[in-house]
Amino acid sequence: MKRLRVGWITLLVAALLLAGCSQAGDGEPQELPVTAPPLRVLYATVEAGSEAVLAATERYRDMTGQPVEVDTFPYNSLQEKVFSELARKSDHYDLLAVDTPWMPRILPHLEPLSAYIQSADSPMRMDDFIAKVFLDTSVFDSIQSRQQPPAMDVIDVDRIQNAGFDIWSLPIQSNVLTVSYRKDLFLAPASRTAFRQRYGRELEVPRTLDEYLDIARFFTRDTDGDGLVDLYGTTLMAGMSEANFVDFKSFLNVYGGELFDRNLRPVFNSPAGVRALETYGDWILKDKVTPPGVTGYTWDEVEIAFGYGQTAMGMNYHDMLLNPKVKGQVGSFMFPGVEQKGTIVRGPHFGSWGLAVNKYSRQRQAAFNLAAFLTGAEAQQGYLKYRHHVTRISAYEAARHLPDAAQREYYDVLGASLKVGVGRPRIKNYNQLSEAVQTAVQSYLSGRQTAKAALDQAVDTVSQFMIMEGY
Q1: Band of the pLDDT at 21, cuts 50, 70, 90?
Q2: Is the Transport keyword given for this protein (predicted)?
């Protein structure tokens, strides 16, 4: 466990007679007694951009005089900690980092935030949040958590409440599947000429999965003449982990499939699901455009393989850099889709982190004030230097002025991808769904079952879990 402990600020004796400050909404600091007890925050590590958030927390402390203590845990440990703290109704932590799939199970333990937003001393600028991200991350029906919130292009708190929903967190970071690529290889004159001769078109960023596969095949080669392939076209995340599930889910989305129908019956063994899994498997087993160990890859191994120049393209949930020993230039593009009637249909998986107020906290207003600051427009723009995945429109607009061209390009791709991304199902037993699909993917890739048989078995397993959960 990594810990940042922000203690009491030492003040001049004369200043002890003065009030401190607190932050409400996204505006100026408000009055705060200097004797305010510390706020305790339970946060993630790098998966939710802890470096940026910790720096902003220190700034909040300096601005307001509010002491804050932040404990950070890696993903699995954080989930266990959040669930444990809430299950025993502990008031130790005031503010919690929550991954979206946890929400249906923990909603009864969270503080609804609509009233806080409406009564904030400074405007929250709700219209500045990316609406799709906000709705997926933060807006739930407390009784029927499976229900989708009303669609809207601009967040309207009154409309949310009138539809029977409330706001249970504020989005702090959003992740979506994107592709990093070796721009230097794409721009090399020899590559462009050879690709044109082989495929009869220019070597450009692919829009469809078929175009992507052509490029992956083209770059899979022996570069040093020893008879062994040492450069592969792409990565995948086929290891037994959540990464494999969201890989499959992205292919499923592209082909028009769904995990569940409207009655929450699992349907990912549909023709679209079989096509998604077979396509995914072909890239590894038939086309061999991925590194040999890809069936054990997660997001970490993908970053290593791409960073050390082993692949020309790499899919992940953040932009990837090259090791300094690898001379090259990195670019970014959206996860490809399929063309339908002249339109590219995409469906990259996305998921977000929110900051939620612990219902059992004795400092709920102060916890909300901190969450509002950390997700506010000013703080989010400050996150850009950390390559944080911001959730406000104004932060993406500010990213267009970053000095680094690769970062500007990545934020453009990230923002565009969030607009077409597909979130997770709103079920209490999400982990069981993910693990069943992971097993199906591994079973197919290992040759133990056909794609259809593996998915049929996973659907049967998930169906039983859904019944047990009461769906």
Answers
A1: very low
A2: yes
Global pTM reads 0.90
Instruction: Indicate the DSSP class of residue 168.
Output: -
User: Residue 110 — pLDDT band, cuts 50, 70, 90?
Assistant: very high
* Domains of the chain and CATH, by start: 2-176+351-418 (3.40.190.10), 178-348+429-469 (3.40.190.10)
Q: Is it the case that residue 381 has pLDDT exceeding 90?
A: yes
DSSP character string of 235-261? ----STTHHHHHHHHHHHHHTT--SB-
Q: In terms of DSSP bridges, do strands 68-72 and 2-5 run parallel, antiparallel, or are they unpaired?
A: antiparallel
**Structure tokens belonging to residue 6:** 């922000």
Alpha carbon distance 90, 43 (integer Å): 16
Distance (Å, whole) CA 114 – CA 129? 15
Distance between CA atoms of residues 25 and 135, nearest Å: 19
H or E segment and range at residue 142: none
Residues 361-372 as b or e (16 or more Cβ within 10 Å = b): bebbebbbbbbb
Query: Which tens digits make up the pLDDT trace of 31-73?
Result: 555 567 999 999 999 989 999 999 999 999 999 999 999 999 9
The residue among 359, 405, 352 whose CA lies nearest residue 375 is 352
| CA–CA separation, 295 and 297 (whole Å) | 6
